[in-house]
Design brief:
By secondary structure, this protein is of the alpha+beta class. Strands 2-3-1-4 form a four-stranded antiparallel beta sheet. The chain has one domain (7-132). The chain contains six helices and four strands; from the N terminus they run E-H-H-E-H-H-H-E-H-E. The relative contact order is 0.26. Helix 3 crosses helix 4.
């Protein structure tokens, strides 16, 4: 029986690697990472860029329909948080930001082998259980 929870992996990269990955999302300059992502039909998205995209979309579409708009805008405008999120990358699989446990397990094994090599600082795993995750701020 499969778990009702889904999972998400994120990698934290050194500042130098983060700049490279943001400039080249295909990871052409990092063959080992590119191969792991390709094997799992996965891609990286910088969390700062995802937040900035959310803010831009909210401003185009009307912020009243985006409950996290204010929090997200404050986050990307905070220099310390900006620095943190510029180095954090969400792993998407088949275009999805959360995926089944077996997919997360296999991907995590591969990515964990790269920690310490060429600028990958850590691999983090999150699940969709609200008890394990901070909840969005109240509007």
């Amino acid at each position: 029986m499969s778990s009702p929870l889904q999972f998400q992996l994120r990698i934290t990269a050194s500042r130098e690697l983060a700049q490279t990955l943001r400039a080249d999302p295909s990871c052409a300059s990092y063959a080992a990472l590119r191969e792991i992502l390709r094997t799992h039909n996965a891609a990286l998205k910088c969390q700062f860029d995802a937040f900035a995209d959310y803010v831009s979309e909210a401003e185009r579409q009307g912020t009243e329909n985006y409950p996290l708009y204010q929090w997200t805008r404050q986050t990307i405008e905070n220099p310390e948080k900006k620095a943190k999120y510029l180095q954090s990358f969400t792993v998407y699989v088949n275009g999805d930001e959360v995926y089944d446990k077996d997919v997360a397990d296999a991907l995590e094994i591969g990515l964990s082998k790269l920690v310490g090599a060429n600028g990958i600082v850590r691999v983090s795993r999150f699940d969709t259980n609200p008890a394990n995750n901070p909840q969005p701020p109240a509007s």
